[in-house]
Specification:
- The N and C termini lie far apart (46 Å).
- The protein has one domain.
- Helices cover 82% and strands 0% of the residues.
- It is an all-alpha fold.
- The chain contains 6 helices and no strands.
- It is globular and about 50 Å long.
- The longest helix has 33 residues.
Amino acid sequence: MDGADELYAIAEFAIGLAGFAAIALVLGRRDSALALVLGRRGGGLDPSSAFAVRSMIVTAVGPGFMAFLPIVLFRLGVEPSELWTIASGAFVATTLCGAIPMAVLQRRNHQEDEEDPTPLPLSVGLWSLLALAVLANLANALGVPAGASVGPYLLGLWLMLAVSGSLFVTMVFGFLR
């Protein structure tokens, strides 16, 4: 299958990034991390920081799981010509289902809390990367310009990991100040 080695590498990188994020969270704010995991209100991270941490973990774990989708489809006997169409369609659907609530929550948190841990230029850049990932996979699912292929799917996964990595760096520097 085309791209299998790259998909395994993406999955490993995604799980590693999510793990480092969890470690940094626990070491940075032990009481806040426990409150975040337990979902307690009144303690732990402020809404904007909690949003950034959740977004970072989702954008790391999501590509990790999505990296295995084409492999599973291939093992189930899906034809390679249909495989990338199905995988890209699933990528678009899951990303939009995650991104729309994240956008609403980010707007609500920004209205309630003036101190947003993600500066506006970084936020615009991150949302642009997600939009580019969705558009590349939407075009791939529709077969534009020359049929579905592995390239746009891998691009979308790497772009989501770039978002997660940027949020990770922002979180680490936020804990260090």
